[in-house]
Every structure is written in structure tokens, then in C-alpha cells.
Design goal:
Blueprint lengths: L16 E2 L25 E6 L15 E3 L12 E2 L6 E3 L5 E8 L2 E4 L1 E3 L5 E2 L2 E8 L6 E9 L2 H4 L6 E6 L6 E9 L5 E4 L2 E3 L9 E8 L2 E6 L2 E7 L15 E9 L15 E12 L1
Parallel strand pairs: 4-7
Antiparallel strand pairs: 1-18, 2-20, 3-8, 5-6, 6-7, 6-20, 8-19, 9-19, 10-16, 10-20, 11-12, 11-19, 12-13, 13-14, 13-15, 16-17, 17-18
Length: 278
């Protein structure tokens, strides 16, 4: 997403994906990381942020930096990303809050990244978060290859751990990669949920392993993408380091525009983020 400096295409068919429904009820507790799709007993903690600190303070600069500016981010988005406390700050109760705001028709929001700080090749990235919903609202927790600035997108690869749009009746997890002769491909599980599902905290996670990317919500696996199942014209570029991003976009080619029903500020509230490496 440079949110992306490229245009999101339509949702892909589930080539090489296995998926199960998320059955945990909204509001179920998930205070600690759920059982993994595989054992995590030998994993090493690379990053853990519980967002403790006084209300109104910035997230830890040793862990996070900001992507700033507007211009549509390649998707026709309306927001300008800032580092203002009105758009991104701790709430004093152990949460990070990213606020998308509408100030007289001027939309602002924030996009945090661990680029240059934390990345991982194999292991798990997870965030316990409560997501916003409403017409034109597009929150995301996602990953990009650390070689992005050198090779560009889609060669860098992209892993969308969780995205929702509009009233958030579906959870999208998507892998984006390059085709052999140019262009990009995308594939991943889409999970139908109640539109109120995102009004509560849930843990959204991804496991990266050689030739395999597994997605999940709370204690359930939502799907996985396998290098071995890709068609011959699609290349696997995911066995390398990736960094994390958190953001809330407004408008754009995929969700469409906000309207009179959209409630601002639209807040992504993050309880914690953790990265463990194999």
C-alpha cells in the first residue's frame, strides 16, 4: 500500500489457498497471543509493544516511524498522513490510537511503520486491535519487503495481515507478488463476519515459513498461501525480511468515498503488537 504507491486491483480468486471460517464470537477474550498454527516454543521475540505511556504521547520512536503526506497513495485515497497527536497517540490506558479525522472536508490520518527498525524473515507478526468501520474507511495491518526502496512494488512483496473496508462485514488477508513477465498477482482468504465483529478487540496474525504464509484471527486459522501452488507465471518473493505497517486510509478506489453516515474520528485502537522469529 505507498497507503500504497500503487493501485489495488480487484480481489483475486483463492488460488493455492485453504481457509476455514472464523467462529469465535465477537467480544471473546484474547488478552494473550492465541495458540499458533504451529508451535512457537522455539521462537525468539524480536519486538513487543504494549503501548504503555501517558495519554497523548507518541508511540516509541525506537520501534515506530511515520509515512507522511497525501496525494492519494496510488489508490485515490483522500487522507493526508501526519504525525500529529490528533491522528496518532497513546491513550494512557495501554493502547495506540490511530484516528482518521475529517476537519472541514480535509481528511487526515496516520501510517506507522517499523521500516529500518524491526523486520523478520520467518516467524509470526500479530496485533491485538479494534478496527474502525464506516463508508470509505479502510484500516490495515500489513507487511512489506525490506527491499521495497531498491526493487519497488510488487517485486518487494506485500502481505496484508488484515484489512477491512466500509462496514467491515468481511476480513481480507492477502498476499501480493510479481508475475514473471511483469504485473502483479494477489491471493488470500476472505472471511465473512458480523459487521460488529471489529467493534471488539481481536488478535490478527500471520506466520511466515519457507514457501508458506498462514493467516489467522484469534485462535483460528483463516487460510494459507503456498509457493508450491502458484501458477508458473507467478513468482514467490516472500522468503526474505519484511517490516510492519499500521494505518487507516479514507476513501480510495477500493472502499469508495466516505459519506454523511461515516463517523469521524474513525479510530483503530491497538492493544499490542508482537513479532517473533523462528
Amino acid at each position: 500500500m505507498s497507503r500504497r504507491s500503487w493501485v489495488r486491483m480487484g480481489r483475486a480468486s483463492l488460488i493455492g489457498v485453504t481457509a476455514v471460517l472464523i467462529t469465535q464470537a465477537a467480544g471473546s477474550p484474547a488478552e494473550t497471543p492465541p495458540a499458533a498454527a504451529k508451535s512457537q516454543t522455539n521462537q525468539q521475540a524480536l519486538m513487543s509493544d504494549d503501548f504503555s505511556g501517558p495519554a497523548g504521547t507518541a508511540p516509541n520512536p525506537q520501534l515506530w516511524s511515520y509515512d507522511l503526506g497525501g496525494g492519494g497513495w496510488g489508490n485515490g485515497e483522500l487522507q493526508t498522513y501526519t504525525s500529529s497527536p490528533s491522528n496518532v497517540a497513546l491513550d494512557g490506558a495501554g493502547h495506540l490510537v490511530i484516528n482518521a479525522r475529517n476537519d472541514g472536508g480535509q481528511y487526515t490520518s496516520a501510517r506507522l511503520t517499523t521500516q529500518g527498525r524491526t523486520s523478520f524473515v520467518y516467524g509470526r507478526a500479530e496485533a491485538r486491535a479494534k478496527l474502525p468501520r464506516g463508508a470509505g474507511i479502510h484500516p490495515a495491518f500489513w507487511l512489506l519487503g525490506t527491499d521495497l526502496n531498491r526493487v519497488g512494488w510488487p517485486e518487494s512483496g506485500e502481505v496484508d495481515v488484515i484489512e477491512t473496508i466500509n462496514e467491515a462485514g468481511q476480513l481480507f488477508s492477502t498476499v501480493h507478488g510479481p508475475k514473471v513477465n511483469g504485473g502483479d498477482w494477489q491471493v488470500g482468504p476472505t472471511t465473512n463476519v458480523s459487521t460488529t465483529f471489529v467493534d471488539d478487540f481481536h488478535t490478527y496474525w500471520v506466520d511466515k515459513a519457507p514457501g508458506r504464509i498462514t493467516f489467522g484471527v484469534d485462535g483460528s486459522v483463516s487460510g494459507e498461501v503456498l509457493a508450491a501452488n502458484l501458477p508458473p507465471n507467478q513468482r514467490w518473493v516472500f522468503d526474505k525480511p519484511f517490516f510492519l505497517l499500521l494505518n487507516v486510509a479514507v476513501g480510495g478506489d477500493w472502499p469508495g468515498q466516505p459519506n454523511g453516515t461515516t463517523q469521524f474520528p474513525a479510530a483503530m485502537v491497538v492493544d499490542w503488537v508482537r513479532v517473533t522469529s523462528d
